[in-house]
């Protein structure tokens, strides 16, 4: 979801990184922590057939630090740990699907969108180079089973 404040802070961070990069990073990280807590609480409630979560963490910080492999590693380590927390909360028969709408590629000092995202699922999907909309029938099919 697009966020005006995040976009403004990113612009400032790109224009004056020494002054605004840490402010932008802190804002995005705090948003991630809030979204993460809401998502984990929704899973713990177990009253839902479908839980969908979204985080801008990799996208937003990827634009600022896309050329910095150390920062990129830190970002993806946070997301990997988040995925482990989610996996620990779902039952074996639940479908856990993690999807990115695009990847990032280093472009100069800042990252830029690439056309290759990724997905991970705890069930075999037999998909090769799927697009984001290829997951819709999989989700609907799983909901019809429940």
Task: List the SSEs and their pairings.
Blueprint lengths: L3 H12 L1 H29 L11 H9 L3 H21 L7 E3 L3 E5 L2 E5 L4 E3 L14 H10 L1
Antiparallel strand pairs: 1-4, 2-3
Helix pairs in contact: 1-2, 2-3, 2-4, 3-4
Task: Name the beta content range.
Answer: 5-15%
Whole-number count of domains = 1
Q: How are the strands ordered across the major sheet?
A: 1-4
Instruction: Provide the structure class.
Output: mainly alpha
Q: So how many helices?
A: 5
Mean pLDDT: 84
Please write the string of helix (H) and strand (E) elements.
Answer: HHHHEEEEH
Q: Helical percent range?
A: 55-70%
Gross morphology: globular
The residue ranges in which pLDDT falls below 50 over 5 or more consecutive positions are: none
Number of strands: 4
How many strands, which pairing sense, and closed or not: the largest β-sheet? 2 strands, antiparallel
Radius of gyration, whole Å: 17 Å
Distance between the termini: 28 Å
Descriptive overview:
It contains five helices and four strands; from the N terminus they run H-H-H-H-E-E-E-E-H. With 146 residues, the chain is mainly α. The chain has a two-stranded antiparallel ribbon. A two-stranded antiparallel ribbon has the order 2-3. The chain has one domain (4-145). Helix 1 runs antiparallel to helix 2 and helix 2 (17-45) packs parallel to helix 4. It is globular and about 50 Å long. The model has no long low-confidence stretch (mean pLDDT 84). The protein is 55% helix and 11% strand.
């Amino acid at each position: 979801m697009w966020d005006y404040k995040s976009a403004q802070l990113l612009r400032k961070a790109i224009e004056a990184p020494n002054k605004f990069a840490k402010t932008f990073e802190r804002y995005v990280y705090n948003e991630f922590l809030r979204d993460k807590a809401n998502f984990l609480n929704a899973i713990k409630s177990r009253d839902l057939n479908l839980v969908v979560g979204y985080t801008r963490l990799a996208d937003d910080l990827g634009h600022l630090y896309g050329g910095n492999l150390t920062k990129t590693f830190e970002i993806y380590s946070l997301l990997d740990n988040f995925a482990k927390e989610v996996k620990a909360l779902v039952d074996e028969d639940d479908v856990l699907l993690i999807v990115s709408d695009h990847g990032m590629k280093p472009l100069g000092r800042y990252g830029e969108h690439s056309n290759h995202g990724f997905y991970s699922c705890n069930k075999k999907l037999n998909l090769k180079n799927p697009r984001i909309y290829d997951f819709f029938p999989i989700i609907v099919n799983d909901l019809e089973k429940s």
